[in-house]
Structure formats: structure tokens, C-alpha cells
Design goal:
Blueprint: H1 2-17, H2 21-57, H3 64-79, H4 90-113, H5 118-122, H6 124-159, H7 163-170, H8 183-187
Helix pairs in contact: 2-3, 2-6, 3-4
């Protein structure tokens, strides 16, 4: 009887070790850690925006519409509750990604327009903030790439046999990843026109 019980226990342990549960857990935790880093970098950027806007406001002639767009985009991006569940809800994840994309676009327009203001470009505070913002954008890119890789590993795990059976039983679905918003537009080759003389 003890021998049968020992054999059954050994077979059960071997079956569990091959089910992929631990691998799914490991990959899920890596996704959560990578997501936390993405949020950290987005928060860093959001924290820089008010300082940047205040320095730009000092330039009396600056386009108010551009500043309003930046402030509204920041407000929208920070209003989305970035909970851990967000990475398990493709619709909520997409809204979050769109809001962050709008903030990136508004900041890009702001920095582009500042080229027309020599006083602003000469302002040391503005240059420091611009450098910090550029560094933060680079950190966001790195954090997003790590997140994309960890989601890829996780998704491959939960879709591969026999792990997919464990994932199905335990309720682990594939997770959304960052996408390119204008994928159709960037898939077309660029039009180059040098003009004729």
C-alpha cells in the first residue's frame, strides 16, 4: 500500500512539474515587474510636464493652444487608473496606450514649436527640462521594450502545449502588448519627390 501511495505521489508530482504552472507564474511576475517599470517612467514624464509648461508660459508670446493641448493630454493620461488589472484587459490597455500616445504627440508639438522662440531656447531651465524629458522618453522606450518581451514570453507559455491546458484551467489568458498606432500609415513606402527643374 505504501509503495502504491509513493508511486502515486511521484506520478502526481511529475505531472504537476510538466503542467507549466510554475513557468506561467514566473512569466506572469516578469510581466508585472516590466509593467511597473513602464508606469514608473510614464509617471516620471507626467511629473516633468507641469514644470515644462510653467517655463514655457514665461514666454509671453507662446501659443496658448499648444500649452492647453499638453495640459489636457497630461490630464487624460494621468486620469486612467493604471492598476495591475489593466494589463489583463485589452480594451483598458488600449485606452491607456492611446492616452499616453496623445501626451507624446502633444509634447512633440510643444518642443517643435519652441524652436521659434530664441529666448526660450536660451533659457537654461527649459534646456534642462528638455534634456530630462528626452532622457525620460528614452527610458520609456526601454521599459516598453522590456514589457513587450516579457509579454511575448508569457503569451508563448500560455499558448504552448501542455501549458495551455493549465492556463485554461487556471484562467490565464494572453496579455495585450504595445502596438503601433498608425501601423497602416507606416507600412506604406514613403513618397519621395525631389521636384523637377
Amino acid at each position: 500500500m505504501n509503495r502504491v501511495f509513493s508511486l502515486f505521489t511521484l506520478m502526481f508530482a511529475l505531472a504537476l512539474s510538466g503542467c507549466g504552472y510554475n513557468t506561467i507564474q514566473t512569466n506572469d511576475e516578469q510581466v508585472k515587474a516590466a509593467w511597473a517599470e513602464v508606469l514608473n517612467q510614464y509617471q516620471r514624464r507626467a511629473d516633468l510636464v507641469p514644470n515644462l509648461v510653467n517655463v514655457v508660459k514665461a514666454e509671453a508670446n507662446f501659443e496658448q493652444e499648444t500649452l492647453t493641448q499638453v495640459v489636457e493630454a497630461r490630464s487624460k493620461a494621468t486620469s486612467i487608473q493604471a492598476t495591475p488589472e489593466l494589463i489583463n484587459d485589452p480594451d483598458a490597455f488600449n485606452k491607456f496606450q492611446q492616452a499616453q500616445g496623445e501626451l507624446s504627440g502633444a509634447l512633440s508639438r510643444l518642443l517643435l514649436i519652441t524652436e521659434n522662440y530664441p529666448n526660450l531656447k536660451a533659457n537654461q531651465g527649459f534646456r534642462d527640462l528638455q534634456t530630462q524629458l528626452e532622457g525620460t522618453e528614452n527610458r520609456i522606450t526601454v521599459a516598453r521594450n522590456r514589457y513587450i518581451k516579457s509579454v511575448q514570453d508569457y503569451n508563448v507559455t500560455v499558448r504552448s502545449f501542455p501549458n495551455n491546458l493549465t492556463a485554461m484551467v487556471m484562467g490565464y489568458d494572453v496579455k495585450p502588448s504595445f502596438t503601433v498606432e498608425n501601423e497602416a500609415a507606416i507600412s506604406k513606402p514613403p513618397t519621395v519627390d525631389f521636384g523637377t527643374k
